[in-house]
Each structure stands twice: as C-alpha cells, then as structure tokens.
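Extended Data, record Salicylate hydroxylase
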Amino acid sequence: MQSRQIVVAGAGIAGLTAAIAFARHGFSVRVFERSPALEEVGAGLQLSPNATRILDRLGVLDLVSPSTVRPEAVVLRDAATLSERARVPLGAAAERRWKAPYLVAHRADLQSALLARASESPLIEIVTDATVSGVEAQASGNRITLTQAGIVSHEQAALLVAADGVWSSSRRLVGPNEKSRFTGELAWRTTLSADGDVGRHFASLSSPAMVTTYLHAGFHLVAYPIRAGAAINLAAFTPGNSIAEQWSGETDANALKRAMRGTAPALSRLIDESGPWTVWPLHAVDPTRPWTAPSGIALIGDAAHAMTPFAAQGAAMAIEDAFTLADAVASGPNTANALSQWEMLRKPRVRKVARRGALNRLAWHAAGPVAMARNLFLKLKSPDSLAADMDWLYGWTPPGWKDDGRL
C-alpha cells in the first residue's frame, strides 16, 4: 500500500487539485496545510478554457460555476481616453472555439469548490496547522517529517507534492535553497459591490460583463465581475518597491494615484472612490530551476514557477501541473522516470506562458511611438484573429487527453 501513498504540502488551488487528481487514479492522499484553518483569502482570478476543461474532468466545474461569471469578451481600453483598442470574444464563442468555458471567479470560491470535491473522496484527508519540514529518501520511499502544534511526526509516502506557493519552504528539497525574487511590480486589489454607487460608476465606464484592461504607460488596471456578478474585482499593477516578504498589506492608494496621472477623469474617480486597497509584491521563481527529485518530490504551481499575472495564467498553470503530474505518476511503475518526463514536458509550456505575460506587460505599459505602433497593430487585428493567437494557450489539452463528453 505504501507505493500508493501521496503527501501534498499546501491546500491551495494547486494542492487541492493535485489531491483530487491523484485520488482519481486510486492513490491515497494526505494534504498538510500550514495554516490553522482554511480561510477565505485572495482575490479574483481568471479560469481560461485550458483550466476549466480539467476542472470539468475532475468534477469541480459544476461546483464552482454557480459563483462564477462567463464574460462576453476581453476588452483593451486606453486609460486616457477610454476608447476601445481591441476585443477578444469569449462567452459562447470561447466554448465553440476552445471546447470549454472562460470563467472569472473569486479565488476563495474556487478553493471552496475544490474542498467540497476533495471531501467527497474517502481517499483524501486534509490536515491543518501542519508543516512539512523535511524529507529523507529511503529504499521503501520517502520519510516525510511533519510539525504540527509543536509536535514532530513522520509519514511514509511514495511521493511528496510540494504545492506551498511562492514562499515555498519545500523548494530547497529539490535544489539550492533559492528564494523567489521581487519583480519590481506591485499588485493593488480591491472589490466593489456591483449594486453600490462605485459599482454603478464602473458600469458607466465599461460593461461589467467583460474582462476590461485599461492601458497606460505607468500602470494597467484589470476589472471583471466575480461572485456571480454581485461584485467587481479591480486589480491594478504599478512599478514599486517590495513591501515585505509576505502576501499582502493594506495601504493607501496615493502611489497608485500618482501612477495614474493623465488618465480619464472618470477612471481616476473610480480609483479615488474604491478601496480599501490591498497591495501585493509580485514575486517570481526561475522556472529553469529543478522541479523534481528522483527520490519522489515534485514542486507544482507557484512553488515551482511563480510568474507575474500578466497572462492571467497562475491558477491555470497550477491546475495543469497537478493534473498532468498525477497522470504521469499513474502511468508507470517508475516514479523517478515519470517525474523526469513530466518536468521535461511541462517546462517549455510554462516558459512560453511566462514570455506571453512579459509581452503583455510591455505592450500594456507602452508609451510614445511604441504605444502608437501597438494601437495600429491592434486596429489591424480582427477579434477572430486575436482569438486565434490564443489557440496554443486556451486550446491546450493534457498529453493523452481523450474527450469523455463531459463538457
């Protein structure tokens, strides 16, 4: 039975998806979460078709869908004039093109759906206030050291899946003890009530049924509905200094307002009247570093390759990682070979996604002649052509994927 034991460090999106994916193959999974309780954290996220088709296969999509919104399009607007620069059709068009829906959601709603799905499986156990503090490779498998409420214990498992996020303490188990690096960018986030005064003001700027990105040389702002349309998620991104090695901190919006000089008065008013704002320092992890160890350790999600959110693929890459890792390990008896092959196949895709995010950031913050060239390029591209540019990303399916007719 020991060879069917999996330990997962972290009960976020990556860890819970991994637990469900491994249990689907008949593995017994214990998930250890360092927090004392699984609390509602985070903000909005986008679930593109490459993620939702996996969530559907795992039986999660039906659970999360009632709390999500299916936006009609991604729209790019000039922050100074509010004029539309480009539009990528979503909604029914996305489902026809990519065979899965494009959704926007609150992170906590997705985590709740994953928890609900995991709780249905007798093969999954979730333990809180427990930290994976070490791993010792043995002939019979990994001896994993855990610390819970000051008490040290040990688990035997064939595989440790480290899904403990950008501040991962497990990353050192597969290579040099390298920390994530600050990217020089800050993320400013807040949520509006859709039926409040500020929410109604936002609706006057752009349709709340869209994912709207406002472009400006000093910042960009992404807005979309969450909580089944009851709230609007605002996320602005500016250059800045690292505030601390922590997830977030509340701050005033003066730095954001300074970055927004020259924007349309209606957009400036939106920022003035929104809040409180929570600021996140954006950290990244070098994706070329090792993700696996032959003894039976695998990093997934932000622990392996945290990236800036400018391609809106952080959650999607974690979901892809978890699903494909479980498939790879279940496909053969040699775990070391399976991990090596999985890492080799995943890295090129993750690097390509990261490059797309860097390109988006460059384009959205362009100024002067570069901005003029960007605007001309977008003007010449039809909505269908812009959608076709995303086929490689949104139309992706895991290796060996077979359509089971769920969607």
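Summary. The mean pLDDT is 91.
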